[in-house]
Specification:
binds flavin-adenine dinucleotide; Butyryl-CoA Dehydrogenase, subunit A, domain 3; 6-stranded mixed sheet; about 45% helix; 14 strands; about 500 residues; alpha+beta; about 15% strand
Length: about 500
């Protein structure tokens, strides 16, 4: 089929009829509804378009995929260090122009995890899931299917495991096994981009015990499968004016509360069903792969923050002030540190069942730093820009002929005719850090791709603590630790 164009992608959305709800409305035409325009532009059209742009194509297209063809990097499964680095760079490039687009590989990341874990399962248990995943991935790549990731369960009482909940449906589960497939019931929370996706990929969120076997389920299904309801929430359509919202007018990642009201899935689309011992492997491998790309995307967004801060400082005439330079330097330090963790996580990656998996400790350390970095960078950006970020007039008033001379006279910075440029930069900063979109980021950066405590758990679990303890024990040897004669007891 070749690389999908934005037009082909939008046309594919017109061919499907998911059950979508937003703001009390049952929405039938997603592709033309203004509420979904920014999400469609960011996750779908822009990601597809980038692979057709001559200046970006080289970084967006790789080969071979599982069909032996060339493929968009966000649909490609990494088998080498170079593949991981290409993914990191592509996520950065995409997010520099549309910050949330760098996360659009999330469905690919689930499938990479399933490729790895099902191969292991088939070998150890004699199941036959892996060929199904391979065949699904071949279609995913051939048609460049846009998939959304339904991982996070609604969970009810967070202190209880799936089978211990009062209501058995608080984690997605298999309620019936038939000759032709399974029926699942439950709900997944926060499914990014589902409304503009072609298919959903569903995997378990956590490790499971034998008694949780019905909850150890993974599959892929079209978004318009009967019984699936997408209850969507985002901020697009609130403020689409490009002057007021230069980034969020085309950058959104609408999430859905995704209900599975007794949904039938044929066996050829089922990738795990009851193998509870492997659920944690799928969840952790996915998190690892996904967080590596997250670092590239975060760096793209931070570079935009740095640029906006420098522009505001120049327009305000304070770019050379020591405290301003120090704040921008701090932002650069964070951006470069997160990038360094992304690069080293890729270089120190390992091959699992033939696919390349980033180093989990470095990846999670980077993800954690991305959260800390976002708050610090946003604070510096707002401090550098000044209060006009949130108080400058509405665009309608800025453009009024009777007010315009006052705006141009009093909103100027260093240069006499700089008012409009300065206002545009203030609106950009408002959009990034002080708008509803900015507020979305303050939560996204904490919980998106997993909460901070989950990252810490992974770092603690995966770090080579035994080796560190060994070093500490060795240090007890004193001089003998470095090959010299011990002088104990003098
Ligand atoms: C913008 C955004 C986009 C997202 N996109 C997706 C997506 O595309 N697909 C998807 O599947 N998910 C997605 N997520 C979900 C994300 O992974 C979750 O938000 C995250 O895992 C936290 O789960 P939760 O929101 O249910 O919060 P909770 O699990 O309720 O966590 C709230 C707090 O409670 C703590 N906590 C939870 N359980 C325990 C426990 N047993 N013991 C002690 N402390 C506990 C957590 O550490 C956290 O601090 C997205 C989230 C956001 C915000």
């Amino acid at each position: 089929m070749g690389l999908r164009t934005p037009e082909q992608y939008v046309e594919s959305l017109r061919q499907q009829s998911p059950e979508v709800y937003a703001r009390g409305e049952r929405i039938t035409n997603v592709a033309d509804h203004p509420l979904f325009a920014s999400t469609m532009a960011c996750w779908g059209s822009w990601v597809c378009r980038a692979a057709h742009m001559p200046e970006l194509r080289a970084g967006m297209v790789v080969s071979p995929d599982l069909n032996g063809e060339e493929c968009h990097v966000f649909w490609h499964m990494a088998t080498s260090v170079e593949d991981l680095l290409t993914n990191l760079r592509a996520a950065r490039t995409l997010s520099e122009r549309s910050p949330l687009s760098g996360y659009a590989s999330i469905g690919r990341d689930q499938l990479q995890s399933l490729l790895i874990v099902t191969r292991r399962m088939d070998r150890e248990l004699g199941t036959s899931y892996h060929p199904r995943v391979v065949s699904y991935v071949q279609r995913f790549q051939r048609e460049q299917l846009m998939t959304a990731a339904a991982v996070t369960d609604v969970k009810g009482d967070r202190s209880k495991r799936p089978a211990d909940q009062d209501d058995p449906d608080l984690y997605l589960r298999v309620i019936e096994r038939r000759d032709d497939g399974i029926v699942v019931r439950g709900a997944k929370a926060h499914t990014s981009g589902s409304v503009v996706a072609n298919e959903l990929v569903i995997i378990p969120q956590r490790a499971m015990r034998p008694e949780d076997a019905d909850y150890a389920v993974a599959f892929a299904t079209p978004v318009d499968t009967p019984g699936i309801k997408l209850v969507c929430r985002g901020f697009s359509g609130e403020n689409p004016d490009e002057f007021e919202a230069p980034v969020s007018s085309h950058d959104d990642l609408m999430e859905s509360f995704t209900i599975f009201d007794d949904v039938f899935v044929p066996w050829e689309r089922v990738f795990m069903c009851g193998e509870s011992a492997y659920a944690g492997d799928v969840a952790n491998t996915f998190a690892n792969v996904n967080r590596q790309g997250y670092l590239g995307a975060d760096v793209g967004k931070l570079r935009l923050f740095i640029g906006a801060a420098q522009l505001a400082a120049e327009l305000n005439g304070v770019a050379k002030a020591p405290h301003i330079r120090s704040k921008i330097t701090e932002m650069i330090r964070l951006e470069r540190s997160i990038w360094a963790l992304g690069v080293t996580a890729s270089i120190e990656s390992r091959s699992e069942e033939g696919w390349q998996v980033p180093d989990p400790v470095l990846t999670n350390a980077g993800k954690h730093m991305a959260m800390e970095g976002h708050y610090l960078a946003a604070r510096n950006l707002l401090e550098i820009a000044g209060g006009s970020v949130i108080t400058s007039p509405y665009v309608e008033d800025i453009m009024r002929p009777d007010l315009r001379p006052f705006i141009e006279k009093y909103y100027r910075g260093v240069e006499p005719d700089s008012a409009m440029e300065r206002l545009r930069v203030m609106k950009l900063i408002r959009d990034l850090a002080a708008s509803e979109y900015g507020g979305y980021w303050y939560t996204e950066i904490i919980h998106g791709s997993g909460s901070p405590e989950a990252e810490k758990l992974q770092m603690y679990r995966e770090h080579d603590l035994d080796a560190c303890v060994g070093l500490a024990r060795h240090a007890l040897l004193g001089r003998a630790a470095v090959g010299e004669r011990p002088v104990v007891g003098v």
